[in-house]
Amino acid sequence: MEDKISRNEFLKSLGFKGASLLAIYCGASTLTSCINEAGDPSGNVGLDFTLDLTDPANSKLNSVGNYLIVNKVVIARVSADQFAAVTQICSHENKSKVIYQGTGFYCTEHGAKYTIEGVGLNSEGKKGIKAYNTQLTGTTLRIFA
Ligand code: FES
Known about the structure:
Elements: H1 7-13, H2 18-28, H3 31-37, E1 48-52, E2 67-70, E3 73-79, E4 82-87, E5 98-101, E6 104-107, E7 113-114, E8 131-137, E9 140-144
Antiparallel strand pairs: 1-9, 2-3, 3-4, 4-8, 5-6, 6-7, 8-9
Helix pairs in contact: 2-3
The chain binds FE2/S2 (inorganic) cluster.
């Protein structure tokens, strides 16, 4: 005879419940999704992707001062050889309204301002904003946490 119990029932029988049960399920899923479930407001912990700058869809990034929003990340061409990237989600009231404006990042909702490194420059932006690393290799731009 075969006794079948669910994974949940098995874990409960060992005394796991609530948060510890969630932690075990996280361990079985991908690290990224687990961390995101832990409450990162940007939802972008573990973020890592590349953009092909020869692709017309990414052509804005070939001109200094322009920006592109991909995967809720605002990516800006700051200078001939420098990029900057921050989450699109403003730390003031979590609106997805951050853009790049000339010398830094700006939220169009209430005016929060951030440096290209994500440091807050006014009262709305005082919490700063999550910034990501950028790395250009040839014509491939990598954006990563
Ligand atoms: S939500 Fe961005 S400034 Fe208020």
